[in-house]
Amino acid sequence: MLLNKDKFPVHIGFIMDGNGRWAQKKGLPRTFGHKEGAQAFRRILKYCYEIGIKNVTFYAFSTENWSRPKAEVDAIMTLFNDYLDEAGDFSDKKDARLIFLGDKAPFSPDMRQKMIELEKVSENNDAMNVAIAVNYGGRDDIVYAVRSVVKMIREGFVKDEDINEELITSLLYTKNMPDVDLVIRPSGEKRLSNFMIWQSAYAEFYYTDVLWPDFTPNELDKALNDFAQRNRRFGGV
Length: 237
Hints:
By secondary structure, the chain is an alpha/beta fold.
């Protein structure tokens, strides 16, 4: 499919939705759907690199997802831990910076350390920014930034009149990335689900009934071509 790379989004946010429903439709456990969803993640990340998308964020696990059945959460954590073991290889080969959005505190010490080390060793890579939102919520992201502002005021580094959009943006988990300009959500649902509320203020949205495990590079091409046709006015005329 012919793509207009001059009109590519700078930052794509993927809400990886539909893993459980994909498995249930096939009479399989929901955990099997997450395994297939992890493969779709690898497939789409590789394709984004190949076609030159500079910034991608994948919504992997929200602050609300902890309420799911323990067996399902445990399966997701195992898959995430497996990815952490291979992420460094992708980062090295592709010169990609890895960023993990969200509060790392609830994860095991081993997983926290892996995330911290991957962020550290890849911080100077500049071919691509790859953010994975884990234990992430858009509201929590803003609360995190506000708490940082309060601390800065108490310590005398910031005055009330210094608080503006630029300051808040610089304190979000995504401080090293541009705002999202395309949010893609498979599975037929049409909502943000607490994903990057601040960063998606002027994002375009693309919805598809395709479930995430079946999301292919061809499906991404459809979204990119749709995005290229949008007239983005940012509040203007």
